[in-house]
Amino acid sequence: MDNSTFVYVTFIRTSPERLWAALTQADFMKRYWFASHVECDWKVGSPWRLLFPDGRVADSGEVLEIDPPRRMVIKWLHESPELKAEGPSRMTMELEPLEGAVKLTITHSMDRAESELIRKVSGGWPAILSNLKSLLETGEIVVKKF
Amino acid sequence: MTDMDNVFKALADPSRRRLLDRLCEVNGQTLGELCQRMDMTRQAVSQHLGLLEAANLVTAVRRGREKRHYLNPVPIHELAERWIRKFEQRRLDTLLDLKNHLEGEDSHG
Question: For residue A128, which residues of chain B lie inside 8 Å, CB to CB?
Answer without folding.
Answer: none
